[in-house]
Amino acid sequence: MTKTWFITGTSSGLGRLLTEKLLARGDTVAATLRKEGSLDDLKALYGDRLWIGLLDVTNTEQVHQVVDAAFGDLGHIDVLVSNAGYGLFGAAEEASDAQIERQIATNLTGSIQLIRAVLPHLRQQGGGRIVQLSSEGGQIAYPNFSLYHATKWGIEGFIESVAKEVAPFGIDCLIIEPGPTETNFAVGLDRAQPLACYEDTPAGEVRRALASGAFEIKGDAIKTVDAMIEAADAEKPPFRLALGSSAYTSISQVLSERLRVLEEQKEVTLSADRDS
């Protein structure tokens, strides 16, 4: 049975691959992007099965306009994929105010407003599915990605709550957490102006590893998209799906350590309750 999808950030990377694969199997895609013409080749191949909308997710008014237009034209959308985003690279102190505001407006506020705009339509049609692209960086943290992590941890918390709010309406949610994957993510990084004082710190180490190519990227983009589609197609998808061995190892280690620390502090934790 074919489906209709709404996907943001489709001009390149995982969003583009996802759009290509869904169209190739016969689905309909409402694809949004900021750069006009990026999907002209797919439009020529698939015609009316590809609906294209120009969208900057930091423009909330435009988000509502494009979402309303897509539902109006297509009638029913089965799956929303909130994919638009990028990474701000640099120690927290190095980033400019403008860079911080843009990172949060795109990755966090943009995703929040997109989902808010879609929810009334999904309720009215009797249900649907929300797929949020996060990252292993929604569970762990690397030096030099503090603002990026803030948005990914933030959007995961948002989805955790929203999923409970909208479940009674037949709307479910899926968070995708890929590890480092061979896409154009690194090329698209917004880089803060480095400060010399961080050269011999963990932030400097990550900077050098990324510059030299030593930062290991194990994830395969095509396999990642295939796994995303399979999960989104499932009758009962997992709430979270980590993808890639790097994501599995990193998230597993961090969660195990977090649980160990919690148990270690159990006595003092419980002591903070009121006396009965």
TrEMBL record:
Record-linked NCBIfam families: PRK06482.1
UniProt keyword Oxidoreductase, yes or no: yes
Annotated InterPro entries: NAD(P)-bd_dom_sf (IPR036291), SDR_fam (IPR002347), SDR_oxidoreductase (IPR051911)
Keywords for the protein's UniProt record, in alphabetical order: Oxidoreductase
Cited CDD domains: 17beta-HSD-like_SDR_c
UniProt-recorded Gene Ontology molecular function terms: oxidoreductase activity
Entry annotated with the keyword Nucleotide-binding: no
Phylogenetic placement of the source organism: Bacteria, Pseudomonadati, Pseudomonadota, Gammaproteobacteria, Oceanospirillales
Source organism of the structure: Vreelandella nigrificans
Family as reported in the entry's similarity comment: Belongs to the short-chain dehydrogenases/reductases (SDR) family.
The name this protein goes by in its record: Short-chain dehydrogenase/reductase
